[in-house]
């Protein structure tokens, strides 16, 4: 058994985009688990935009990652040693593993994976928190209904691609926003979206007008900034905006001031932010629906997998440069 734990610790708080210079590697002996704990071998680590918020001095809704401690992250791992009767050696678990190769975690905070529903890769991808975020953001917060038009920013990203497909399954007209021709082709040719807006192509206001001639009923926002402003312009009466993220603003040196919130009055529009953990009690409901769609072949998720834990700091920066092609994951060990 591996007897050392590779870790990446937060070295300093970034002002802009986080990268390798803000983290430092160390290696510690593994800590054998005590009662109610598990020693886990990390297999997949999720890289998510929220992680940039967590390394801020004041994230707002959670405690910040402390300087000198392992970077916080969720992931999928294999149990090596169990001191809890509910878990056996070899079980795959979903847990807050952090940027560590062999963390010791509380069994109470870990979920044993049902591999009859999906593979470990499915559990970091379409059965993971990005898909849950898309499900509850679209159907509960956005209240998307068949026949409506749904606009989704960062539509080729981890959450966006799931929300886009879910909206299509629901019977909506779906317009995605993404950066670059390759991502836009993926949205139309592979995921079957009705229209796309390439925010890197220029003429963004004109592109919105062309793709949304009759406006939109729901905007699932992962980006914020100008894209949110333009979505408010095109929101239909009684439209809903679900604020999932604001990746354009998280590491920005100067925040964008949304100018037209007043339009929501006449439109009777609603903006609501949400956090997926608010829906924790309903995860089984969502995963049952998602698993059915995976089995039917109506839902898929493209993963962008980086090889090795040492790629995690680089991966976090990739998110904010638009360099990832789908849900970003670090593979630490073989399944």
Structure description:
This protein has eleven helices and 15 strands. By secondary structure, the protein is α/β, with parallel strands linked by helices. It has two domains: 152 residues, Quinone Oxidoreductase, Chain A, domain 1 (Alpha-Beta Complex); 149 residues, 3-Layer(aba) Sandwich (Rossmann fold). Strands 3, 4, 5, 6, 7, 14 and 15 form a seven-stranded mixed β-sheet that branches. Helix 3 packs across helix 4, helix 3 packs across helix 10 and helix 6 runs parallel beside helix 7. The longest helix has 14 residues. It is globular, with a radius of gyration of 20 Å.
Q: What is the count of β-strands?
A: 15
Residue-averaged pLDDT, rounded?
95
The CATH superfamily of the largest domain is identified as: Medium-chain alcohol dehydrogenases, catalytic domain
Question: How would you spell out the order of helices and strands?
Answer: EEEHEEEEHHEHEHEHEHEHHEHEHE
Oligomeric state of the chains in view: single chain
Domain module tally: 2
CATH class of the largest domain: Alpha Beta
CATH architecture of the largest domain: Alpha-Beta Complex
Please describe the biggest sheet, giving its number of strands, its sense, and whether it closes into a barrel: 7 strands, mixed
Apparent shape: globular
| Helix content, binned percent | 25-40%
- SS-derived structural category: alpha/beta
**Distance N terminus to C terminus?**
16 Å
